[in-house]
# Entry
Amino acid sequence: QVQLVESGGGVVQPGRSLRLSCIVSGFAFSNYAMHWVRQAPGKGLEWVAVIWFDGSKEYYADSVKGRFTISRDNSNSTLFLQMNSLRAEDTALYFCARGSCSSSACYPSNYWGQGTLVTVSS
Amino acid sequence: DVVLTQSPLSLPVTLGQPASISCRSSQSLLYSDGNTYLNWFQQRPGQSPRRLIYKVSTRDSGVPDRFSGSGSGTDFTLKISSVEAEDVGVYYCVQGTHWPPVTFGQGTKVEIK
# Structure
């Protein structure tokens, strides 16, 4: 049974940092790219970042580039999102999702976690 | 960046009636390998997104056959042949052809009349 479980969300002041985790089970984590996707309260889905299966490549949305870092620990089947210099507009439910990525295309596939809520507020 | 424009944004439907959602892309989503990387996701209230369709028209495992996807180039459609109560939620088109970034449509909210 495939499971993706996010954690690490919470309330944080603007300018501070937070690290999200996503623990995966039920599939060979080290074989797949992984995404972070977020959803602001009452809003649509926004892609945040993707990391290649071996950690060799990372790509980011312009809105988080330079502030967020995606990483992974394949030995522990865990995905991370280090979020620095947080802003009010980063307030959202953050989902991790398995990727379907190659040299030609890249998008979240059919396995998503339940999300972890990040609230940036003073 | 590729912009995906969905219409309508709100879709009240009667149970048992068909429904159709349009997704238009600012660029052709046909990749040089011959594939078109346009997917459809469903997000039921309070749940995570669930992929229904990938590469325009291929249903994911377990997706009822009342859902179908079609289109090419820049114009795509998700159809529900006969809406059921469990289909209530928000539907998103997503493209993975021109990335980064991966881009989502604004979402179409399907509700029962």
Summary: Chain B touches chain A at residues 31-33, 35, 37, 39, 41, 43, 48-51, 54, 60, 90, 92, 94-97, 99-107 (CB under 8 Å). The longest strand of chain B covers residues 19-25. Chain B is about 0% helix and 50% strand.
